[in-house]
Amino acid sequence: MKALLFILLLAVAGGFGAPAPAWSAPAPTMRFEHLSVEDGLAQESVLAMAQDSDGFMWFGT
Q1: Within 13 Å, how many C-alpha atoms sit on residue 33's CB side?
Q2: I want to staple 48 with a disulfide (CB 3.0 to 4.6 A). Which of 40, 57, 60, 61 is the partner?
């Protein structure tokens, strides 16, 4: 019985150091620029997307 109580106490105490769940965090603010062929894109269709280590998004057309 003492072992069960000890394990339960560890489980509850360990939860206080855990990060908050993703659903409780506010959504990040996003900004978009609209680009088209008139702005220099080779075509309207995006064929590839990537995000670099600085958070910049890269789109391959």
Answers
A1: 8
A2: 60
Residue 1 lies in a domain: no
- Give me the domain span that covers residue 55: 34-60
Measure the CA–CA gap between 18 and 12, rounded to whole angstroms: 11
Residue 42 counted as domain residue:
yes
Q: In this predicted model, what pLDDT tens digit does every residue of 21-58 receive, in sequence order?
A: 656 677 677 776 777 888 888 888 888 889 999 888 88
Alpha helices, H only, the chain? 2-15
Token pair recorded at residue 34: 């609209």
In the chain, the number of structural domains is 1
Residue 49 to residues 3, 12, 36, 46, Cα–Cα distance (Å)? 52, 42, 16, 8
